[in-house]
Structures are given as C-alpha cells and as structure tokens.
Amino acid sequence: MDVYHPEFRQSIAIDSRIQSITKILGLTFSTYEGEERFYLEAAEQAGLNGWELDRLMFNALDRFKVLLSQ
To answer: Do 1 and 18 meet the contact criterion of CB atoms below 8 Å apart?
Structure first.
C-alpha cells in the first residue's frame, strides 16, 4: 500500500498496528467498518485523506504510540 492508488484514497487498513493505536486511545469498535470510519473522519479533520493518514501512522507508528500514551 506504499504506492498511491486512487481506489485506496479513502481507505485505512485496520490491522494490528492501527488496532494498537485504537487500544491506546481506549476505544473499541464492534465492526471493521466502524473503526475504519473513525480513522477516516480523523483524517478528514486533519486535512488528509485515508491513504495519507494510513501511511503517516505506518511510517511513524512508534511516535504515535509515544505521543498518545502521554
């Protein structure tokens, strides 16, 4: 998913790394779609598309975890 593809512009891969961020935030979701929607809305508020937020969290996962744990 490192290559930007228009079909994935508004997508976030809810995998173990994203779930680790969700856990730090103290959130739970009953569906994959609900969790993805949460991150897509966060991306929109930050002025990003889903793909951009996904890549940002992928490339800076450790930093995200540190900042969110404070």
So the answer is: no
Residue 70 pLDDT greater than 90, yes or no: no
pTM of the model: 0.84
Confidence class for position 5, pLDDT limits 50, 70, 90:
low
Question: With contact defined as beta carbons under 8 Å apart, do 13 and 39 qualify?
Answer: no
Token pair, residue 7, equals 């079909």
- Of the candidates 50, 2, 8, 42, the one whose C-alpha atom is nearest the C-alpha of residue 22 is 42
